[in-house]
Design a protein that fits this description.
single chain; alpha+beta; 3 helices; globular
Length: about 120
């Protein structure tokens, strides 16, 4: 069983993963998130970026927004997988030890952080 994200850090990223068939769905989800929760929505990347093995869009939020935003995201992701991780200043730990998932986990490309 995949553990639900927990509010343990001051700041977070949620990375919404999608592909060619779900890009419109992801755009709509991220836009709605920005409008409803006043979270910072990054670019919708239709290419691989950073350690992410899928196209993605980053949403930045804080611990005060965590509970309502994660509950909404879980209800509205409609099959999209989402990596949620704390921001501690240690990129490798943030994407491994401080990471959880809504949906199915993916293997990240951790080599850029000195990981495997």
């Amino acid at each position: 069983m995949i553990a639900r994200p927990q509010n343990l850090y001051a700041h977070y990223h949620a990375h919404v993963y999608f592909g060619p068939d779900t890009v419109a769905q992801a755009r709509q989800l991220c836009q709605q998130a920005g409008e409803q929760f006043n979270v910072r929505v990054g670019r919708v990347h239709e290419k691989l970026v950073g350690p992410h093995p899928h196209w993605s869009c980053q949403i930045a939020f804080d611990g005060a927004q965590f509970e309502p935003f994660i509950a909404w995201l879980e209800q509205n992701r409609d099959g999209l997988d989402v990596l949620v991780h704390g921001l501690t200043g240690d990129d490798l730990a943030d994407h491994t030890l401080h990471a959880s998932w809504l949906g199915e986990p993916s293997k990240l490309n951790l080599a850029m952080f000195g990981g495997t």
